[in-house]
Structure formats: C-alpha cells, structure tokens
Amino acid sequence: MPADSYRHRGQRRTLVAELRRKGIEDERVLTALGTVPRHLFFEAAFQEHAYQDKAFPIGEGQTISQPYTVAYQTALLGVRPQDRVLEIGTGSGYQCAVLLQLTPHVFSIEFNAVLFERTRRRLASLHQAAHLFCGDGSVGLPGHGPFDKILVTAGSPTIPRALLQQLRVGGALVIPVGTEHTQRMLRVTRESEAGFVREELEEFRFVPLLGQAGWGIKN
C-alpha cells in the first residue's frame, strides 16, 4: 500500500468537515470519504490538489469527480452493506473505492480501455476488490444484474432503458441527465416491475456518457 501519512489523514478530516458544512449529512458516506486516500488516485505531481473540493483532469478527456459530487451521489443511493451496486464510469476508481467502503458487492464498467487498464492496476495496488469491466456502460451489465443500486458518473441525454431493466424492484438509479454541458441529477426508484418514481434534484456538470444509450461513440 502506498503512503498515507498523518498529514493526508488530517487533510481528509478537513475535507469531510467542509462537505458536512455544504450539506452532506450521511455519516456513513462521510466516513467513507474520510477513509479513502484520494491522493493515491492522482499522479504524484498533482497530489497537492487531492483534498481540495474540486474535480481534476485524469487524462483521456476524463476527470476525477469533485468530492462533494461523490458524496452527494453516494448519499442519494443509500447503499446498504448487502446491496449489489453497479457503477457506470469507473474513471479514476475513486468513486468505486468509496462505494466499496459501504458494500463489498460493487460492479464497475469503464468505456475507455486505456483508463480501464490504468485504474484496474491502481485499484489492485490498493487492494480494492471490485468487479471491473471494460465496455459500454450505457447498456449496463445485463449478464450480472439485477442490481439494488445503479450509479452513473457521466452526463446522459436520457435515462438508458437498459439500466432501468437491470434495477431490482425497490432499488434506486442515480444519474445526471441533460445536455453535454449541464445536467440535472435524477434519482429513479423502481417501485414495481413497471412502476418507477423519478425525482429531479440539483444541477451538475459531468463529462458526457459515451455509448449506445449515451452520446454515441467518439474518437
């Protein structure tokens, strides 16, 4: 395990206090963010940015999400220890590591092959044992569902039908939906086989969701 110093732990405590002031109330989520060493998801030259509440580029046109956004989405999911969670957009692996603090049953899919391989190695080095896949997350993982919770970490033009189909009755999908530049966070709860309840929440700005049910395939 790479270094996680007393200074880093202190920076996380400060970050958690900031997130609490910004309205994050779920103590399990705050504990998860206070546990995961975010600096280890950055290249060494940029680790000074790790505990600022901001997104940061990680290459391949992607970013590591702002800690507030990670906390906000995770709190909306309401993850229980027994839940099977599907994450669409592994990215740096940071959100995945936070989810693993809440349940060991995390499945995560990344569209970009270069980013997937880099993040697979990083999570292995940190002993974070998620089920990782490289492919089109906009269609989910039909061979591995249903899932109790589904989290989408990229902005989508619509709610992909495949993700709704892979959601267990009683489960919740959290997804930012809108244009390529700004999205509204949605939480969709499946109340029955055919019944879904949709809540519209705050506005955010995510990188675009690529794939069949996203913004297509881009070079």
Structural class of the helices, strands and pairings? alpha/beta
Question: Helix fraction?
Answer: 25-40%
Name the average pLDDT.
Answer: 94
* DSSP strand tally: 9
Termini Cα gap: 35 Å
Query: Which strand order spans the largest sheet, edge to edge or round the barrel?
Result: 5-4-3-6-7-8-9
User: What is the general shape?
Assistant: globular
The largest pleated sheet is described as:
7 strands, mixed
Beta-strand fraction estimate: 25-35%
Low-confidence blocks of residues? none
Topology of helices and strands:
Layout: H1 6-21, H2 27-35, E1 56-59, E2 62-64, H3 67-77, E3 85-88, H4 94-100, E4 106-110, H5 113-125, E5 131-134, E6 147-152, H6 161-165, E7 167-178, E8 183-190, E9 196-204
Parallel strand pairs: 3-4, 3-6, 4-5, 6-7
Antiparallel strand pairs: 1-2, 7-8, 8-9
Describe this structure in words.
The protein is an alpha/beta fold and 219 residues long. 28% of the residues lie in helices and 25% in strands. The chain contains six helices and nine strands, in the order ααββαβαβαββαβββ. The chain has helices at residues 6-21, 27-35, 67-77, 94-100, 113-125, 161-165; strands at 56-59, 62-64, 85-88, 106-110, 131-134, 147-152, 167-178, 183-190, 196-204. It has a seven-stranded mixed beta sheet. Strand 3, helix 4 and strand 4 form a beta-alpha-beta unit. The chain starts with 5 loop residues before the first helix and ends in a 15-residue tail after the last strand. It is an enzyme of class 2 (transferase). It catalyses: [protein]-L-isoaspartate + S-adenosyl-L-methionine = [protein]-L-isoaspartate alpha-methyl ester + S-adenosyl-L-homocysteine. It is found in: Cytoplasm. Catalyzes the methyl esterification of L-isoaspartyl residues in peptides and proteins that result from spontaneous decomposition of normal L-aspartyl and L-asparaginyl residues. It plays a role in the repair and/or degradation of damaged proteins. The active site is at residue 65.
